[in-house]
Design a protein that fits this description.
The complex is a heterodimer. By secondary structure, chain A is α+β, with helices and mostly antiparallel strands. Chain A is built from nine helices and twelve strands. Chain A has helices spanning about 10-20, 30-35, 95-100, 120-125, 155-160, 165-170, 215-220, 220-230, 280-285, and strands at about 1-5, 50-55, 55-70, 75-85, 105-110, 125-135, 150, 180-185, 190-200, 205-210, 235-240, 250-265. In chain A, strands 1-2-3-4-5-12-6-11-10-9-8-7 form a twelve-stranded mixed beta sheet, with helices on both faces. The longest helix of chain A is centred in the C-terminal third of the chain and has 12 residues, at about 220-230. Chain A is elongated and about 65 Å long. Chain B has one domain (about 5-15, about 30-70). Chain B has helices at about 5-15, 35-50, 55-60, 65-70. In chain B, helix 1 packs antiparallel against helix 2. The radius of gyration of chain B is 11 Å and the shape is globular. In chain B, about 30% of the residues are buried. Classes of the chains: A alpha+beta, B mainly alpha. The interface between A and B is medium-sized, with 17 and 16 residues.
Chain lengths: ~280, ~80
């Protein structure tokens, strides 16, 4: 009898062979385990749904829950990840999709939908979250402002952040995410940048998942290019277009994503949603 | 069963109409996966000039359920 049941953190060892069979990146087992044991406070015991043929696990659709304060409101998120079903049971895959899209009162995000599944998301009320990257080109950094200092030292970063940003930073401290903090020497402006070293098809690049001040970020492009490039051991820096809130960057090009990320929300617009608390930061994608 | 509906299922699943059985469904036809399902639903919507809701998209997993939905939409 084929059925769907909720997945819990305790099921990781049972589901690992299934995840391992389908993973198409060199993500270590310990990172996959983070989909089940989150480094931030638990807001739900649900880790997704398992498709079973009697007791045998034949499919999985992961869910990463989180809560964020956005514009003074507590928003609940469910990030959808790893929709996998053994080939001989693909005719039952829709049951998993139905289960995750029925999670009520949450903003649902999916950063890595396969192109052929996009029509399903769209038919179920999902909109495009992002379609384009801004890529900082690997050019020498000449215009580094003397009034901006930067650090990747976690202790220094934690000491300089206000309480809400410090909490976000700490929640990502033990994920593949790294942090860069830009701050004015004379002045109070600062920008926290959270990023991963991500492997593309041909190159590794620094992928920005969060930036706290798009204007300050845009004013310090050369410094960011230099610091992120060194920290991620990469010549390229990629930023989701929406995170820049329309600001232009020097020496960059725009690239289309192979498939857009999508979201469904009754309270948030795309510009209010970053990539944190998701599979992107847990798996370093 | 509606002949146009059976023909759409046959075309989308690559199975001859008389080999589909009495009430083909996602549970009984291995080729009826989520991508095939979307093709079936969209073909039916086009053929019968109807629009199914997201809930219907998920629930219409058999030929009989699709036929019932078409009757409900006065499209059969």
């Amino acid at each position: 009898m084929i059925h769907v049941e909720p997945a819990t953190a305790a099921m990781f060892n049972e589901l690992w062979p299934l995840l391992e069979k389908f993973q198409n990146t060199s993500v270590p087992r310990a990172w996959w385990e983070r989909l089940f044991i989150h480094p931030w406070p638990e807001t739900s015991p649900l880790r997704g749904y398992v498709l079973r043929d009697d007791s045998r696990a034949i499919g999985f659709f992961g869910v990463i829950h989180s809560q964020r304060m956005i514009d003074g409101r507590l928003e609940k998120f469910a990030n959808l990840t790893s929709w996998i079903v053994l080939p001989e049971f693909r005719n039952h895959a829709l049951r998993l999709f139905q289960a995750v899209t029925n999670i009520p009162d949450h903003t649902l995000t999916c950063f890595t939908p396969r192109r052929e599944t996009l029509p399903f998301y769209k038919r179920c009320g999902f909109q495009e979250l992002e379609t384009r990257f801004r890529i900082l080109l690997p050019l020498p950094s000449f215009d580094v402002s003397a009034n901006t200092r930067s650090t990747t030292n976690p202790q220094r970063i934690a000491a300089q952040l206000d309480a809400p940003l410090r909490e976000t930073f700490k929640h990502h401290r033990f994920t593949p995410c790294k942090a860069l903090l830009l701050s004015q020497r004379k002045g109070a402006r600062q920008c926290l940048v959270l990023f991963t070293r991500t492997r593309g098809r041909r190159y590794a690049f620094a992928r920005v998942h969060y930036l706290s001040d798009p204007a300050f970020f845009a004013e310090n492009t050369d410094l960011i290019r230099l610091r992120l490039g060194l920290a991620a051991r990469s010549l390229l820096v990629m930023i989701d277009e929406r995170m820049l809130a329309g600001r232009s960057l020097k020496h960059c090009k725009i690239a289309e994503m192979s498939a857009p990320s999508v979201f469904r929300s009754s309270s948030l617009s795309a510009g209010q949603i970053d990539n944190l608390y998701s599979e992107l930061v847990l798996l370093g994608l | 069963m509606n002949e146009r509906l059976i023909q759409i299922l046959s075309d989308a699943l690559g199975i001859a109409p008389d080999a589909l059985g009495n009430d083909p469904s996602m549970d009984t036809i291995a080729a009826w996966d989520s991508v095939a399902h979307l093709n079936i639903v969209m073909s039916i919507e086009q053929e019968f000039s109807v629009q199914f809701s997201p809930d219907e998209l998920m629930e219409l997993r058999s030929a009989s359920a699709l036929a019932d939905a078409l009757r409900k939409h006065n499209a059969a």
